[in-house]
Specification:
Blueprint: E1 7-10, E2 17-22, H1 29-35, E3 40-46, H2 50-61, E4 65-71, H3 80-93, E5 100-105, H4 107-119, E6 125-130, H5 133-139, E7 144-149, E8 152-159, E9 165-168, H6 177-194, H7 196-203, H8 206-210, H9 214-234, H10 249-258, H11 266-283, H12 289-301, H13 313-321, E10 333-338, E11 341-345, H14 350-358
Parallel strand pairs: 2-9, 3-4, 3-5, 5-6
Antiparallel strand pairs: 1-2, 7-8, 10-11
Helix pairs in contact: 1-2, 3-4, 4-5, 5-6, 5-9, 6-7, 6-9, 6-11, 10-11, 11-12, 11-14
The structure holds nicotinamide-adenine-dinucleotide and glycine (GLY).
């Protein structure tokens, strides 16, 4: 992989856009003004990120009419009430149809601000400026926007493709260690479902990844965005292939929902969910034990949790049944059927599923 490639296209005809990744992007005034040509801007951020990066962005965007809205941080903010506050702000500043909403923050901010952009005036431009690893490789890319409903995650939302994605890799240096590690789960996911070379590459760079080596990080973000851009270009609204991006998520969302008070970060729950999805793939004889152990070994080396919490099977089924990926009453699972390859399975024998739910990687 070459460090100089920092620009990927998501090809969607008239909705095509570019993902830009690299250091210093939020400081580069002329470059930023070209990508954000809008006169009136509403920037949404959270209370952790805004103090770190809002000033530099305001300085870089200079002459523009930039309004900002800073909300508390965390998953609990992805609510209808917060969405309403953003709409109120749009109304107050008269954000026009040719205005733009920027999202400076992690996946919570890009999901929430993206949905506000999808719904204000039936859709205004949206440009995420992702500041977590998870958002740079996944949440800010591909046009899924959503808020949570008390009965489940991301149940209210829309597909609304960004106008561009601007991922400044310098912002990852201030990311708390636990958040950084959680983002690595989505990195491993991309390699497992679509790119065996990326998997080898990651295995060979565990030290550099843990040290957040800037070159390694930039290459990692671009490699994942290339994979996601290709999948999204083939299946924008998840009629088929895009579902493989949910590898580990059916189990993961159940883990996240069962955990009280944000006990599990999204990426952590996805990591433990991927361990179960790998075991399911093995029991379906799609992969062997060595391959399952290899991926779990990489997750452990990167200090990701691989052990799901103990729950009775009925609780698992209830939580997984609430997932929006349930189709015709059947829970859909993404399983791997070889290195860099994944498929959807929605007819898993209940006995097999029960065994998987009782399985532990440490036994
Ligand atoms: P997050 O947005 O909550 O950010 C994590 C924490 O890090 C927050 O406390 C935030 O304030 C802080 N933070 C962010 N950037 C920082 C920085 N550079 N320096 C210091 N602190 C920083 O969480 P996340 O993991 O980025 O995103 C999780 C969300 O993304 C979930 O709601 C999930 O559903 C969603 N998601 C969406 C998609 C999609 O395709 N739309 C894909 C994956 C995940
Ligand atoms: N994060 C899954 C998707 O974008 O489809």
């Amino acid at each position: 992989m070459s460090e100089s490639i920092r620009d990927i296209e998501v090809s969607l005809g008239p909705r095509s856009y570019r993902i830009h990744s690299g250091p210093g992007l939020l400081r580069d005034e002329s470059w930023l003004c070209e990508r954000i040509p809008h006169r009136r801007i509403l920037l949404v951020s959270d209370e952790n990120v805004a103090p770190l990066y809002l000033d530099r962005l305001q300085a870089a965007l200079g002459e523009r009419e930039l309004h900002s809205q800073v909300i508390p941080a965390g998953e609990a903010e992805k609510t209808l009430a917060r969405l309403g506050e953003i709409h109120d702000h749009c109304a107050q500043i008269g954000l026009p149809r040719d205005g733009v909403i920027l999202a400076l923050g992690g996946g919570v901010i890009s999901d929430l601000a993206g949905f506000a952009a999808a719904t204000w005036h039936r859709g205004v431009d949206f440009i995420p400026l992702p500041t977590t690893l998870l958002a740079q490789v996944d949440a800010a890319v591909g046009g899924k926007t959503a808020i949570n409903h008390p009965s489940g995650k991301n149940l209210i939302g829309a597909f609304h493709q960004p106008r561009a994605v601007i991922a400044d890799s310098d912002t990852l240096t201030s990311l708390p260690e636990r958040e950084y590690r959680a983002g690595l789960a989505e990195v491993i996911k991309h390699a497992v479902i679509a790119d065996p070379h990326l998997l080898h590459w990651l295995e060979a760079r565990v030290r550099q990844i843990k040290e957040r080596d800037p070159g390694t990080l930039a290459d990692t973000v671009i490699a994942c965005c290339r994979i996601k851009a290709k999948i999204v270009s083939e299946d924008e609204t998840e009629q088929g292939r895009r579902a493989i991006l949910n590898f580990g998520h059916t189990f993961g969302h159940a883990i996240e929902t069962a955990g009280k008070h944000g006990e599990w970060l999204h990426g952590e729950a996805v990591a433990a969910g991927m361990a179960l999805a790998l075991e399911l793939s093995r029991r379906l004889e799609l992969i062997d034990e060595d391959y399952r152990n290899r991926i779990i070994g990489l997750m452990k080396a990167l200090e990701l949790p691989v052990e799901a919490p103990r729950m009775p099977p009925e609780q698992w089924l209830d939580l997984m049944g609430r997932d929006k990926k349930v189709s015709a009453g059947r829970i859909r699972f993404i399983v791997v059927d070889g290195p860099g390859s994944a498929v959807v399975r929605d007819a898993v024998d209940p006995a097999t599923l029960h065994e998987v739910l009782q399985w532990s990687p440490s036994r």
